[in-house]
Write a structure and sequence with these properties.
Number of strands of chain A: 9
Radius of gyration of chain A: 20 Å
Oligomer: homodimer
Helix content of chain A: 40-55%
Largest interface: A-B, 64 and 64 residues
Number of helices of chain A: 9
CATH topology of the largest domain in chain A: Rossmann fold
CATH class of the largest domain in chain A: Alpha Beta
Order of helices and strands of chain A: HEHHEHEHHEEEHEHEEH
Number of domains of chain A: 2
Shape of chain A: globular
Strand content of chain A: 15-25%
Largest sheet of chain A: 7 strands, mixed
CATH superfamily of the largest domain in chain A: NAD(P)-binding Rossmann-like Domain
Structural class of chain A: alpha/beta
CATH architecture of the largest domain in chain A: 3-Layer(aba) Sandwich
Chain lengths: 217, 217
């Protein structure tokens, strides 16, 4: 049975993985939870708890976790070897920022193309020199997904008015996982219950901080 | 006593508020939870539950919620009248995308300036024509905050290596609320326990989707 892993745990696991990448330790050395705390900011107690939960045990001599083993397990959970090729629907500022997000690369996630309907964007390339991605018209998406049957995930950064219909269209074309960044709670149609959807509105944390600081007591 | 309102509830409240702005109904009309579901995607049951929790009651004749009253209450919770002026530390792609985020405007949040250390960014202006914001050097931040004593909030989009020291520096200069977008869990120093911090790493939702779809069962 597959364990249910929450978003918070996935976040921490991706931090651990990135820390290992950065530290670049020899495979047969050990890393302590204290060291991982130092690099990721996650408390060493939490580190140990997470690894225990994931079934990653500490080395015999309590030197810490064997780097080789840790790498292998974290990679497995994050599907690093499998990788993921994703498209972005909406080539505005947020879409463009995500298209070159450097941490996606570390986690073996590749943005292959962006889609939009604005004539001034369609047909252009966006992103840093050497890492540019094409912006195609949304009407080309169906054909694009047929040509690239390994793409199952889309990031949605369209305006909220268009978000639900775009999600429905993506599902029709076979997309199986969507992160919606628009400020609207989208819903997966009943007939597509296996589709994974996360509503992740950017900016909500800021409203929370504003509330904490300024709301009348 | 001030109610503790969670991030999820704050998110929904900001959706309700934005829906009211968009619908632009006369003040003395009513809006139903069904209508709010239609616009925000939040189920009408959840809408009613949220309003009940917030002490916003339905009109006498069960026509729905009086627009005037609803506006007033939501504004109060989101501190719309107070507004918020914020700075962004890190003028890379994510920082620039956030600097012009249109929904901040609807919620009366103004990004006044960005700060960075890169010579090619410092001294420039970023953003859409007519809404451009200056990029200043991080060394100017202290003076800037002294000149603008109403700024208490910063959005942090610096690389994770620099994130904790930047947070510490912000707190030293009097910042009281921070949203950290870098992929590292930051901590508020013990002596500054009243500082509000939210760690909101962009992209985590995507790793979660990748995990759901591709992780070995």
């Amino acid at each position: 049975m597959k364990k249910k892993i929450s978003l918070r745990v996935i976040r921490r696991i991706s931090f651990y993985y990135e820390a290992l990448l950065k530290l670049n330790l020899p495979e047969n050395t050990y890393i302590s939870s204290k060291k991982l705390e130092e690099v990721t900011g996650v408390s060493c107690n939490q580190v140990r708890q997470d690894f225990f939960y994931l079934g990653i045990s500490i080395g015999k001599q309590k030197k810490g976790y064997l780097v080789k083993k840790l790498f292998r397990e974290l990679k497995k959970i994050l599907s690093i070897d499998h990788g993921a090729r994703v498209v972005i629907i909406g080539a505005g500022r947020i879409g463009q920022a995500l298209s070159n997000y450097k941490l996606f690369k570390a986690r073996n996630i590749t943005v292959t193309a962006l889609f939009d309907i604005k004539p001034e964007l369609v047909g252009t390339e966006v992103g840093k020199p050497g890492q540019q991605k094409p912006v195609l018209h949304v009407s080309q998406l169906e054909a694009y997904l047929k040509e690239n049957p390994d793409i199952h995930i889309a990031l949605l950064t369209v305006p909220e008015e268009a978000a639900q219909e775009t999600l429905d269209m993506l599902i029709t074309h076979g997309v199986r996982g969507v992160v919606n960044f628009a400020p609207k709670i989208l819903k997966v149609p009943k007939e597509a219950r296996d589709v994974q959807l996360i509503n992740d509105c950017i900016g909500t944390s800021l409203y929370k901080i504003v509330y904490q600081l300024y709301s009348r007591k």
